[in-house]
Amino acid sequence: MGFGNFRWRILFIIISVLLLWQLTKVWLGFTQRKSDIEAQLQDNHLVILSQKDDWSKQKIRIAVYYEALCPDSRSFFIKQLLPTYHRLPDSIQVQLIPYGKATTINTKDGYEFTCQHGPIECEANIIHACSIDVLKNSSIQLEYLSCMIKNNIEPVIIMESCAKKMNIDYKDIFKCSVEAKGKELLARYGELTKALTPKVSFIPTVTLDGKSENQARILKNLLQEVCLHFKVMPKGCTV
C-alpha cells in the first residue's frame, strides 16, 4: 500500500513537471509574440513619423505659362502668385515660362518671334527670360518679374526702374536681352510651352506638380488649390 502511494506520488510529480514545462513554453511563446507585436507597432510608428516628416517637407511645383503684356497674366502675378508665395515661401517651387501664344521663327541669323500683343511683348518676354536666367534667388526673381509685369509697355525702362527699386544690378539682364542668348532662352521657353499637354488655350496656364486640371479654380484662388495638394498642411494654409 505504501509502495502504491509512492508510485502515485512519483506519477503526480512527473505529470506536474510536464504540465509546468508545457505552461512555461506557452508563456514564453506568448511573451515572445507580445514582444514581436510591440516591436512591429514601434516600427510602424517610426515609419508613420518618418512619413509625416517627409510630408512636412513636401513642396508643390507651380509652373506659370504667361506673357509679359497679358492683362490676365499681370492680374495672376499680382493677386494670386505673389501673395501665395508670401504665404508659403518654403512650401512651393515656382517656375516661370514667359512665352504664351507667341510663335518662334528659326532663321539663318537666329530666332525671331511674333507675339500675341505685338513686338513690344516679344521684347518684354525676352527681358523676363533673361531675368529668370540671371537672378538665381527664387524670391528676388519673382518679386522682380512681378514688379515689371505691372507696367511692361516700356520693357527697358521698367527693367531699369524695378532693378533700382530692388537694388538689383540689371546690366547682365540687359546684355542678355540684346544678344543672341536672350532669344535662345525665349525659344527654349517656347519649346516648353508647346510641349504642354493639353495644349495652351488660355494665358496664363498654370500647372501644379505638372498637372493642369482645374484651371478656373487655380486662376481664381491659387492658395486654396495649392493647399489641397499637401499631405501635411503647412502653416500658411491654416492661418
Count of individual helical segments: 10
Largest sheet: 3 strands, mixed
N→C terminal distance: 91 Å
**Order of helices and strands, N to C?**
HEHEEEHHHHHEHHH
Shape: rod-shaped
Rounded to an integer in angstroms, the radius of gyration calculated over CA atoms is 33 Å
Mean pLDDT: 87
Q: Please estimate the helix content.
A: 55-70%
Written overview of the protein:
63% of the residues lie in helices and 12% in strands. The protein is rod-shaped, with a radius of gyration of 33 Å. The protein has 239 residues and is mainly alpha-helical. α2 (71-87) runs antiparallel to α4 (138-149) and α3 packs across α6 (171-178). Strands 2-1-5 form a 3-stranded mixed sheet. It has a two-stranded antiparallel sheet with strand order 3-4. It has 10 helices and 5 strands. Residues 45-53 have low confidence and may be disordered.
Can you lay out the helices and strands and say which pair or pack?
Blueprint: H1 2-56, E1 60-66, H2 71-87, E2 92-98, E3 103-107, E4 110-114, H3 119-134, H4 138-149, H5 155-165, H6 171-178, H7 180-194, E5 205-208, H8 215-220, H9 222-227, H10 235-238
Parallel strand pairs: 1-2
Antiparallel strand pairs: 1-5, 3-4
Helix pairs in contact: 2-4, 3-6, 3-7
